[in-house]
Structures
1.
Amino acid sequence: MSVTIEELRSRHPCFALGAKNNNGRIHLPVSPGCNIGCRFCKRDINDTEERPGVSSEIITPDEALAAIEKATELMPEIQVAGVAGPGDTLATSYALETFRRIKERFPNIIKCMSTNGLMLSELAQEVIDAGIDSLTVTVNAVDPVILAQICEFIIWHGKSIEGVDAAKILIENQLEGIRKVSAGGVTVKVNTVLIPEINKDHVREVAKTVSACGASVYNIIPLIPQHKLSHCTEPSCELLYEVRKEAEEYIRVFRHCARCRADAVGLPGGKDISKQIYLREIKSENTFSHG
Ligand code: CLF
Ligand code: SF4
């Protein structure tokens, strides 16, 4: 049984819908590869896929369990174990394997996973069976023409697809996946990266659509302009306030996002003990879209 949204609100730092609840999370960087190409993300997907030797940047499921043990001893406020990258959690099998083992070994830890959702519809039952309590899906647009400006390509069953065709497949799988896992009792949060030049007038539509599919919490993350979207601007506080207000007509909005790294350990936006837990800092770019 997944934990209820009420319990998440009091124990999970990313589901505190009013004031912060001062609980912590450990991110387990077990997921190396990705299967889509977001234009704001600097990871070189093909390099990653062709060189599985990049494992020095990630940890194994065994190391993940040891990391939880150590982190919860050092910092009892840590209530949540999350996998948020550095790649996509459903592009490889490591995240689900890690969660199945956490379920056995640490039954009280909240299991949180975040994904781009490309594989979510196909793997929905496995996500439910792994005992995921909270799942975040990053949905940057529900209109393929808008999404094609944000996501360059997808790797779909071994085939690279680009543009609007890719965006259509991604949106279909995200929404169908959200429907299936929410029906299976998993609490779903949706993240949208707010890109003023591309999706600021579309946030309302995303909030309305994902809410109708079963998502219960929404998080709007300001773009960090980089890579192929370095010409775009970082949203102002006023714009962020406005779009949150629009989204709130349809879904509850989370406001304390700290745009965490995939190896963060501690309180989001507060004390971080990742250097005491992980020997190497992972060499990934900012994974803010994955929270
Ligand atoms: Fe991590 Fe994300 Fe789970 Fe939180 S982060 S996988 S839901 S435990 Fe939280 Fe960090 Fe924002 Fe994410 S503050 S980037 S929303
Ligand atoms: Fe993949 Fe996440 Fe980067 Fe997008 S932001 S390309 S989903 S790793």
2.
Amino acid sequence: MLKGRHLVEPGDFSVEEMETLFSLAEHIEQDETYLRESCRGKVLATLFFEPSTRTRLSFEAAMLRLGGSCLGFAEPGSSSAAKGESLADTIRTAACYADAVVMRNPKEGAALLASRYSSVPVINAGDGGHHHPTQTLTDLLTIRQLKKAAGVAMAGDSPFLGLTVGCCGDLKFGRTVHSLIKALSRCPNVKFILISPEELKVPEYITGGILKKKGAAFLETSRLEKVIGDLDVLYMTRVQRERFFNEEDYIRLKDSYILTAEKMRLARKDLIVLHPLPRVNEIAVEVDADPRAAYFKQVKYGMYVRMALLASILGAV
Ligand code: NCD
């Protein structure tokens, strides 16, 4: 169904196509041998022009678990980009060696450009402060599985129906938030509470261009304590130091929100706390022991959903 497709931003896959990936990932979660060897002989290129731990390793783990192989770089300084090669030429080259390319790049729009030059599917693993669609697949799968386990979603209903989702932190530069909002705004009755300092609010192309256009309910606030009790999902994010123009602003804003055990006492019993990770200071380590903290489960779901994605775009399912 998704064979040969690019994934540049969440809108590239329909709600139904995402649901198919989630069902596949659920199958893998229940039986880790499912789809094993289905990509034998296939090669994945991972081209990371920016730092990464989970995204790159989970793609590589996913490909290896499917029986395929990986090549690539994690350090742009070791590639010909350092000699001045254009992205278009790098991608054309990688597409000669691999059956699919996963790329992370600091420039917004880089993945779209790569998809135009590539003869094999391109998966966007983050383009600057723009989008990160496979993190969104991870986030949605985590919510889906945890809500299903809690028995909240009725058979046949979308597990996202009627959720109140709080996104907190750097909503300006945080690409994971942009992609999550774009994907969830397609689900019925999802309400967004956008919690950030004034300077780090969600860009207008998201509030005006997506939320208002879709008629999605949203509220912007700077006070986490005031709204935490209303949330089904709290999505914490790191202040994106690398996208700031000056260090002073970063230092002033970096500790705007710190989720502590004390603040968790104001939250509902069935809250799900997510974070794409890496965490810096925005979730106190004491919160990790709270059963509502789901960010390490989220890491595992990231691998399952990337297995489902790779098997699908490589035509193995
Ligand atoms: C995120 C990213 O790279 O955008 N990390 C990730 O992929 N899990 C979030 C971040 O770096 O803050």
3.
Amino acid sequence: MKLPINFYKPLAIGAPLPLRELPIRLERMLHFFPPQVEKMRAKLPEIARQVDVVVGNLEDAIPADAKEAARAGFIEAATRTDFGQTGLWVRINALNSPWVLDDLLQVVGTVGHKLDVIMLPKVEGAWDIHFLDQMLAQLEARHQISRPILIHAILETAQGVNNVKEIATASPRMHGMSLGPADLAASRGMKTTRVGGGHPFYGVLADAGTEAGARTLFQQDLWHYTIARMVDACMAAGIRAFYGPFGDFQDDDACRAQFRNAFLQGCVGAWSLHPSQITIAKQVFSPDVAEVKFAKRILDAMPDGTGAVMIDGRMQDDATWKQAKVMVDLAKLVATKDPDLAAQYGV
Ligand code: GLV
Ligand code: MG
């Protein structure tokens, strides 16, 4: 076991001190772009103004013969774009792939000083984080990068889910985790052919005799268990949880429902793979105006956060005060970026 006293020490001479607190940032949508496509690179400055985070994708969905073009395209776009307050992330290839070494050497070596987070796919256990942690410390030292690059793990293998707590606490570089439902479905042997979302056959049938005519099958959320485990592991470690991709771009309602379940369960954002999903994520991961107003009434009614009061017939105490604080703190963060919502929230 690593001694607690060493946890926050840099892993290489000349690497920056690890952060003790995550920077507070709005990360409602992690917007993916394929950097080998010139048209997408050209649109990047405009997209970056609309989203909270842009993620250059080097991994799955990039054809093997375009991996180098994607890496070069990402470096080119990252170099010339001013991202302002928008986060700049990259999803590198898996640690056992033939591309990851050059992904790290070239991306960190050229645009490492601009990079906020590296998204690491197919994380199986803490050992994967330790490897990347050490490697990043070496690269930060070599390239005089003064701000530590954070690590975001994709939770998308059965073994990763088994080890989710160890992954969350593996390093002070941990930013958070995303559920990767497509790879996870394959790794688990689930009998599906989808990227996230529900399945019409996964449900509970109403009891026989309770309804006239055909019995209703109530569809259930396939991802509930994994999201709950991920949120607990992340929040206990002080890092952030995200829902990942939703692959059916025709079905905005289902995407919204999946994102909303994740939001209610504790996630702070989701991936957007299509422009329509930017709008959905912005709506879902910005708290509801009526909820924020009610939360403010709780905070106002209990200035020191203790005791019990009744508001509109509902009991409020220290625990609802804390829930209200989560909501109002998030609303304040959203308000820094969205003047319309700031006015509606009244924060
Ligand atoms: C994302 O990478 C997924 O596999 O769902
Ligand atoms: Mg995947």
4.
Amino acid sequence: MTNNNMYFIANWKMYGNLSSITTLKSIKIFSKTRKLKKTKIIYCPPYTLLRPFVDTLKSSTIKVGAQNCHHQTDFGSFTGSINAKMIKSLGCSYVILGHSENRREGENDKIINLKIKSAIKENLKVIFCVGETLKEKRKNKTKIVLKKQILNGLKNISKFNNIIIAYEPVWSIGSGKIPASKDLDNIVIFVKSLLRKRSRLKNIKILYGGSVNTKNIKELSKIRSINGFLIGGASQKTKNFIDIIKKTIN
Ligand code: PGA
């Protein structure tokens, strides 16, 4: 069985400059492979590279997204901020929200909820990140934390078609550690059933993120409940990113 209906999202964080554009050539060619027809490849570079990425990738099926946005939809006096409308107007289709690196800087569930609403209003697809810290995991609180983050983040939202959840345990991001397959499967199934109850939607996509690399992808891709991957460090080298996609869909 092939795994070709999957999401592969490259989260470049605060890395990259204009010269990074040249690395997109090989993935553009790769994305035209027949086998990848249903596969969704999305690049989320820093704000400064959104437009160059959109321009470079426009003749391909690869989409571009931002890594965050301000919660206010209208223009306003928010120095240093970018809103969903601006992101959309650049030709982007996605935005990552609720990433733990932003929660760490003080972003809370309430703000994330407003951000999700503003992104949906602008017709952006939301990659909504949730995940527990090591301390919470050790106290067996993973499911409680996820439930709280998800229910608060999605409060008063009824349109779920444009929302994808990325389960990213905080202790796994950039650490080289990933959850045991059995635990991961269990958590993804838990999140899916929570969302099914909350939204009555059957096909919400759940991605996994945290230290995904060319070595552990074979194991991770065997977990059938997972609909794709949010990839940080390993996505910055196009060769590795392509390798991860190849190993998943084959
Ligand atoms: P990582 O990051 O793959 O480098 O662990 C994932 C993320 O933060 O989205």
